[in-house]
Amino acid sequence: MFMVEKTQVRPNTAIGIHYTEPGGVTGHVMLLIMVLMYTTAHHKIRKQCFEAFWYTHHLAFFWMLGLYTHSVGCFVRGALPGEEVECYAYNTVRFTVISGTLYFIERVWREVRARRKTQIVGVLLHPSGTMEIRIRKPSFKYVAGQWLFLQMPDVSRWQWHPFTISSAPDDPYVSVHIRQVGDFTKAVGERLGATPQLASSLTDQSKGGMSGQDARNGSFVDITGARVNSLPMIRIDGPYGAPAEDVFNCEMAILLDWHWCNSLHYMQQKGRLGALRRVHFIWINKDIAAFGWFRALLQNLEDIQTDPRFLRMDMYLTVTDSFRPAKLPRVLQPGEGGIENGSLLPGKEASLETRVGVFYCGPNALAKQLKEECSRVSSGTIKFELHKEHYIM
Question: Does the pTM exceed 0.90?
Fold first, then answer.
């Protein structure tokens, strides 16, 4: 670019081309936006300051504006000194106008869809500070295994966060389970009355162990009370597809997260298991209280089993300082053997002639190990396929 001052192909200085002509200005604006977006997309920055990631990625709209105005002002020309200047337009617009228009329409439709009537009908607080928010939105239709975006204007007018749908399609509400681990989720908890003191008290009760009817009900506190009409406004957008939807296309499923439990319970009750014949549920956690908030669901899953070979559940604790086995319901007794030598997948399934789906939501480090394990244990008669959920948080 700076050679133009030596060759005088154009009677302009390089500084002038860079900072006074539309092509140079829009190019620098797009470059700045890309630097901000790529930097804040790093997983460490995204986890420490999700707000920075969220807001900078909305600059993509201005990047698109810069792209479509980059060619104005006769930036690209074909003329030698002394000849008439001939401007060349960018033809890229012709190939992107259709996709750009569809993107704009989709964004407008998302806004319209998200603003439809939505109401919080229940807030339950589970051990470890996990909240269950039950929402009524008649226009919201979904299938088992999907997820949604959630916004609470009282907390943030612009932020939308992804959460897996934990209710069944036939339930009269849409529910999500939210762990209070970040600034946004903690603010939502405070706004709904799920205070740290109440969560700590419930967690201590769960660590102490429950049995009988308390264990069946699942230790939770309904904090909705008479405030249902004064609860804050909430918006949800979706639903969106997820790997969990493919669970019922596999003959055997290995589930390494709790998100699929309610869908499994619902589909089994409705007799809609599809090709699914066996399920192995594995959950790894560092605190026994974390298992308590969905113990009722696990208990119900175990109660409806007619085939003892259909469902196997293994829970693994990585920290056992406060672990008291005698206090746990049978469904929460830890699996024997643990996970040793990096082997995460039971080897005995290798004798089956089937397709095994491994469904996982969690850190990438374990996902990489799972991928290696799937490749190692697969054979000509059995194929292990890893399905990982990718959330932006």
Answer: no
